[in-house]
Design goal:
about 170 residues, 5-stranded parallel β-sheet, 6 helices, about 20% strand
């Protein structure tokens, strides 16, 4: 389950966020005194923090941070400080869940690792799993495009490579 550090100066605000998140996520309530140790030890994937406290704590740069505040004027400051999201108090359940879900989806995309094997047999691995092509010509076309390293491949060239014994008909 996706673990989220909740760091709020006001304990009541932290508990409200935890209550909203607890059904779909694992909120971990932290104070500025224990945040460094907890972020190093826990499997935290996202931090939700008070705008007032963010400068007082050391959050690892690889962790996405949603900053919270009570005034819309603070949104610019939050994003200037590197926040990837912003929540306004009083927290609206839909807004909190939508923001976290959006960032969770972005985080998953960043974690995908694609490896293309071009020597010997051509294969594509996504997160260690071999990608299955339902059409061999699609796999051959991808291999051709990778071979060209972003260069142009005309339709005539692609047809010539993929169907060696066929002539290209421009009509």
């Amino acid at each position: 389950m996706f673990q989220i550090a909740v760091i709020q100066q006001d304990r009541e605000k932290a508990e409200v966020l935890a209550a909203i998140l607890q059904k779909d996520y694992r909120p971990v309530l932290l104070s500025k005194e224990n945040v460094s140790d907890a972020l190093a030890e826990e499997e935290i994937k996202l931090v939700i923090c008070d705008l007032e406290q963010v400068s007082e704590i050391n959050i690892p740069s690889q962790l996405p941070v949603i900053l919270t505040a009570t005034d819309t004027k603070d949104a610019y400051t939050a994003f200037r400080l590197g926040a990837v999201g912003y929540l306004l108090y009083p927290y609206q359940k839909e807004q909190v869940l939508q923001t976290v879900e959006h960032l969770q989806n972005l985080f998953k995309i960043k974690q995908k690792q694609v490896v293309v094997k071009t020597f010997g047999r051509f294969d594509v691995m996504v997160d260690g799993q071999k990608l299955h092509f339902s059409n061999t010509k699609a796999k051959e076309l991808l291999a051709l495009l990778i071979d060209r390293q972003g260069g142009t491949v005309t339709m005539a060239e692609a047809i010539d490579v993929l169907w060696e014994n066929r002539q290209y008909d421009e009509a």
